[in-house]
Amino acid sequence: MVPRYLLLSLGLLLSSTPIALAQGIAWRTDYRTARQESREKGLPLIVDFGTENCFWCRKLETTTFRDPGIVAILRDEFVPLRIDADRDANLTQLLRIQSFPTLVLAAPDGKILAFIEGYLEPEKLLPHLRAASATVLATPEWMTRDFEAAS
Predict the structure, then answer these.
(1) Cβ atoms 23, 70 nearer than 8 A
(2) Whole-model pTM?
(3) Residue ranges of the alpha helices (H) in the chain?
(4) What's the rounded Cα separation, in Å, for the pair 29 and 23?
(5) How confident is the model over 34-58, as pLDDT tens digits?
(6) What is the rounded CA–CA span in Å between residue 16 and residue 39?
(7) CB 111: neighbour CB atoms within 10 A?
(8) Residue 110 region by backbone torsions, left for phi larger than 0, else alpha for psi between -120 and 50, else beta
(9) How remote is the C-alpha of 22 from its chain's centroid?
(10) First-to-last C-alpha distance (Å) of the chain
(11) CA 112 to chain centre
(12) How many CA atoms, within 13 angstroms, populate the side-chain half-sphere of residue 107?
């Protein structure tokens, strides 16, 4: 029989490992910080606009955003940002977001790549994510640097 304290220690150790942490999406909540991170890392931004009492927003969170394929691509190839539209009404209005959930995919320079309104199942969201990622990540760093220097 294994002592209880050993089991608790093992549980704490496992709960803090990268495998356990990788199971979810590390949503950012500050727009400016997320934009800066997107620019610095050269990764596209996904902005999830929702409200606290939105049924479809909760469904997106409990199904699509728990799918291992979606979690992996958002963790590795995006800077994920979650915006509560009720609390950040200015940003919501500036982007003319009127229905929830709405996902906005943006390049590191802030250029909007796509608006996706409503709930999507993982297999329907994945092609949008891959397209946005390919658009941003397909340009080699040297090409971007040379273009910026020429501009």
Answers:
(1) no
(2) 0.76
(3) 4-15, 18-21, 31-41, 55-62, 68-77, 89-94, 122-137, 141-150
(4) 19
(5) 999 999 999 999 999 999 999 999 9
(6) 29
(7) 11
(8) left
(9) 13
(10) 69
(11) 14
(12) 12
